[in-house]
C-alpha cells in the first residue's frame, strides 16, 4: 500500500512538472514574441487586474520578490508600457498601464486565450467543461493550501477581475472550504 501511495505521489509530481514546463514554455513564447520577459508580461496582467499596482502588491499577487518586480517595472516604464505615480514619497509609487501597455496587454490576452501554438492551452481546451472544472477545482485547492486564504481574498478583491471569475473564485472557495 505504501508503495502504491508513493507511486501515486511521484507520478502526480512528475505530471505537474511536465505540465508546468508546457505552461512556462507557452508564457515564454508569448512574452518573447511581444519583446517582454515572462515576469514583465505577468506584471502587466497584475497591474491591469488591480487597475494599478504598487511593487508590493504586484509581488504579492505574483508571489515574486520585490526586487525582481521593481526591476521589471522599471523596464516596463522605460519601454512606455506603464507609468509611475509617486504617492507618499519617492519610495512608494503606483504603476498604471499606458494606452500602449493596455493595447499590448489585450494582444497578449488574445494570444493566451486562443492558445495558438501553445501545447498546454490546446490540451486544456480539448478537455470537456467538466474535466476543466475538475482540474481547476484541484489546482485551486492546492493554491489555497500553499498560499492560504489571504491570497484568495486578495484575488477576489482585484478591481478588474471579471464578475464571472469573481463568482467562480467564491464558488471554489466554498467548495474547498
Explain what you see.
With 177 residues, the protein is mainly alpha-helical. The protein folds into two domains: 117 residues, Arc Repressor Mutant, subunit A; 51 residues. The chain has a two-stranded antiparallel sheet with strand order 1-2. Strand 1 and strand 2 form a beta hairpin. The radius of gyration is 18 Å and the shape is globular. The mean pLDDT is 87.
Per CATH, the superfamily of the largest domain is: Winged helix-like DNA-binding domain superfamily/Winged helix DNA-binding domain
Briefly note the structural class of the backbone.
mainly alpha
Name the beta content range. 5-15%
Strand order of the largest sheet: 1-2
Number of domains: 2
How many individual β-strands?
2
Q: Please describe the biggest sheet, giving its number of strands, its sense, and whether it closes into a barrel.
A: 2 strands, antiparallel
Average pLDDT confidence is 87
Distance between the termini: 29 Å
Order of helices and strands: HHHHEEHHHHH
Rg is 18 Å
Number of helical segments with 4 or more residues: 9
CATH class of the largest domain: Mainly Alpha
Low-confidence stretches: none
Q: What is the 3D shape?
A: globular
Looking at CATH, which topology of the largest domain would you report? Arc Repressor Mutant, subunit A
CATH architecture of the largest domain: Orthogonal Bundle
Helical residues, percent? over 70%
